[in-house]
Design a protein that fits this description.
single chain, about 240 residues, Spore Coat Polysaccharide Biosynthesis Protein SpsA, Chain A, 8 helices, about 20% strand, cell wall biogenesis/degradation, nucleotidyltransferase, IspD/TarI_cytidylyltransf_bact, transferase
């Protein structure tokens, strides 16, 4: 079985000037989160599309889905967690409580504020997760990477060719992901907020999937302006 987990639990504190979480801001003629959900709805491979929302926005999210996408029994909105790991566990727990999965069942996890995800990236994630068990969507680093421990002095300038910028989706075999999250110590749980880093820490390989430069994450006000520009170009 194949599941999508759309991570929409954040409150968007870096967006500034608004109390509305960034995933609910308008992009073009509809909310950012709807653009994102649509990318999964049109792919028939997903048995369930799980949207993880702040508790006080669950009803709002359901209302938006009904308004823009209509009734769809493949979509469910549940509460996210306090941290990214907690949110992932909530999605896994929902799957385990409602479906009979096996060791080959896949979860494709994606940021709700990356609305320009492509069909190709989704398909590549599914295939890589099936074959390798874990994958991360990345693009090559284009800027020089500078490392500083204290934020004042350069410690190292590594070879750029070896570095990539992480995007999402990140996709995994569900049982393996659950096993590794549950194996984290309290200290590890507090510092590891990225599922792929959990795999790496535990000595598990994570396969690279080619991302796209337009697969941006809307975090700051400028990002929303850029997203509107990309949307207009795509529509034209």
């Amino acid at each position: 079985m194949i599941f999508a987990a759309i991570l929409a639990g954040g409150i968007g504190s870096r967006m500034g000037g608004t109390d509305t979480p960034k995933q609910f801001l308008t992009l073009g003629d509809k909310p950012v989160i709807i653009h994102t959900i649509e990318k999964f709805v049109i792919n028939s491979k997903f048995d369930k599309i799980i949207v993880l929302s702040p508790q006080n926005f669950i009803n709002h999210t359901n209302n938006l889905i009904d308004e823009y996408l209509g009734e769809n029994d493949r979509i469910v909105v549940i509460e996210g967690g306090k941290t990214r790991n907690d949110t992932l566990l909530n999605s896994i727990n929902y799957i385990n409580e409602n479906f009979d999965i096996d060791d080959d069942s896949i979860i494709v996890t994606h940021d709700s504020v990356r609305p320009f995800l492509t069909h190709r990236i989704i398909e590549d994630n599914i295939e890589a997760a099936k074959k390798f068990g874990a994958c991360d969507t990345v693009i090559p680093a284009t800027d020089t990477i500078v490392e500083s421990i204290d934020g004042e002095v350069i410690e190292n300038i590594p070879v750029r060719d070896n570095f990539y910028q992480g995007q999402t989706p990140q996709s995994f075999k569900i049982n393996k992901l659950s096993e590794l999250i549950n194996s984290l110590s309290e200290e590890e749980t507090n510092i590891l907020t990225d599922a792929c880093k959990i795999f790496v820490l535990k000595g598990e390989d994570v396969y690279l999937v080619k991302g796209d430069i337009t697969n941006i994450k809307i975090t700051y006000p400028y990002d929303l302006k850029l997203a509107n520009t990309i949307l207009k170009e795509n529509e034209s």
